[in-house]
Amino acid sequence: MIKNIIFDLGNVLVKYTPENFLEKNVKKERQEKFIETVFKSKEWLELDRGTLSYEDAIEKFAEIIPEDRESLEKLFNNNIMECLIPIEENIKVLKKLKAKGYDLFVLSNFHRPAFEQIQNDWEFFNEFDGGVISCYCHLLKPNQRIYELLLAKYGLIPEETLFIDDTKVNVEGAEKIGIAGIHLDFPEMLEELLKNKGIEL
């Protein structure tokens, strides 16, 4: 019987939309290069892991795309929130689950400054009973240790726990240690997929 539900953030509860920032701040002909250099880089993963600061990231990226240095500074100093929008329908589901008595947790790969801002600004974080964020433990999903860390920290039993993520390999990482999983391809499918797992709403 499932008692604990673990949520990823990106594209589960928070829509990740870098195009919002790009449209306002990067010339159209340079957007593809910006995406490849920044959002799809190994440095982006280092930011998630908490082993690279925003200041150092700006310098590294500016070596590759010096013409976009001003945009890089805007992104990391002021505008990272332009890439993040709460998914209101799924936040309603989160609150329903809390009202039904499930213990709720967050497990996400996230940059520290961005996470601290959304945690402070968005009230739905009050629904969580705890969580593990990559930048604090220096581990990334799907590394098995990050799932084990969350289980150990809160005394959770894998067979009583369900994990929801938009990335299949992350769900598979949880399933390898006995946690049930939902691969959420489309955010609007959350409620239906939970019901398919026998979760009361």
TrEMBL record:
Keywords: Hydrolase. InterPro entries: HAD-like_sf, HAD-SF_hydro_IA, HAD_sf, PGP-like_dom2. It comes from the Bacteria. Pfam families: Hydrolase. GO terms for molecular function: hydrolase activity. Gene3D superfamilies: HAD superfamily/HAD-like, Putative phosphatase, domain 2. The keyword Hydrolase applies. CDD domains: HAD_sEH-N_like. PANTHER family: ALPHA-D-GLUCOSE 1-PHOSPHATE PHOSPHATASE (PTHR43611), FLAVIN MONONUCLEOTIDE HYDROLASE 1, CHLOROPLATIC (PTHR43611:SF3). This is Epoxide hydrolase domain-like phosphatase. It comes from Fusobacterium ulcerans 12-1B.
